[in-house]
Specification:
Layout: H1 2-15, H2 22-43, H3 48-62, H4 65-81, H5 83-89, H6 93-123, H7 134-158, H8 162-177, H9 190-198, H10 200-211, H11 226-253, H12 257-271
């Protein structure tokens, strides 16, 4: 219980700066950009109403991809700044840090998903998603974010230099583009479809499109399978966090003042400082 309370305090302190000043712009900017892009893209298509509703619904769920990027970025930043070494020295410090970061990153992305959904009702006048669908879609968004969190911790654990950080970000962005939100997953080759059917991101958007009563031709196999989708997300939550517990124990054992000096020196060399 003490660990959980400490993690919640850390999460609150992490979220607060992102909701004021420049931090608020960093939250609102991507939301407005994506909604406007959906509006522009849908205006260029014949079926404007259907297209904007399908894309937006998918994005609300699959935006959980950015939980991975957020957690991985903060993992690397705290490693480089020495916060992980300091956390390791405190009683249960590593678990407080990991739980707190998970809460804060899931929370920030959830706020962005909520803002995206509400903004869409004002920016997309022909949207066919009804107000009664908002709560179920937000529940799916939160479930999706939690399912994505273990992947963020895995990516972060292996980011130990500027190059590995860039590679990690490139992978996450590629997963976001190909998760079936902007384009039907059936339009992608098989070698792209298989990873997406294993990972939680496609299924997050799948559930959002299903709950918002969109047509099924956008989906893999041309039909909705909500039970399978929920099963995939729950599997990632349960199995993912079990794996992450073992991984974090291994990763934090490597967080020493010596490794910190090596990573800082390596990063300076890679970015040319």
């Amino acid at each position: 219980m003490k660990v959980l309370k400490a993690a919640l305090r850390q999460a609150a302190s992490d979220i607060r700066p992102q909701l004021v000043g420049v931090g608020l712009f960093m939250v609102l900017g991507p939301v407005l950009f994506i909604v406007v892009m959906v509006r522009q893209a849908s205006q260029e298509m014949i079926e404007q109403t259907a297209t904007s509703s399908v894309v937006l619904a998918g994005l609300v769920g699959s935006f959980s991809t950015f939980v991975v990027m957020q957690i991985a970025a903060e993992f690397y930043s705290d490693r480089l700044g020495g916060a992980l070494v300091r956390a390791r020295m405190l009683p249960n410090g590593s678990w407080v840090w990991a739980i707190g970061k998970t809460f804060s990153c899931v929370g920030v992305v959830f706020i962005m998903q909520t803002l995206m959904l509400f903004a869409a009702f004002f920016i997309l006048p022909n949207l066919v998603i009804s107000w009664s669908r908002i709560i179920p879609m937000l529940v799916i968004a939160l479930l999706s974010n939690i399912a994505a969190a273990p992947l963020g911790l895995v990516f972060g654990a292996f980011m130990r230099g500027a190059y590995s950080q860039l590679i990690g970000y490139a992978i996450v962005l590629a997963l976001f583009v190909t998760n079936g939100s902007y384009f039907s997953i059936g339009d992608f080759p098989r070698w792209i479809q298989i990873p997406q059917l294993i990972l939680p991101f496609y299924w997050s958007g799948h559930l959002s499109r299903w709950i918002s009563d969109n047509p099924a031709q956008w989906e893999y196999g041309g039909e909705f399978t909500p039970v399978l989708a929920v099963g995939v997300l729950l599997t990632w939550i349960i199995v993912g966090f079990i794996v992450v517990i073992a991984l974090l124990r291994y990763s934090f054992r490597k967080e020493t003042f010596g490794s910190l000096a090596n990573i800082q020196s390596k990063t300076r060399a890679q970015i040319g400082i």
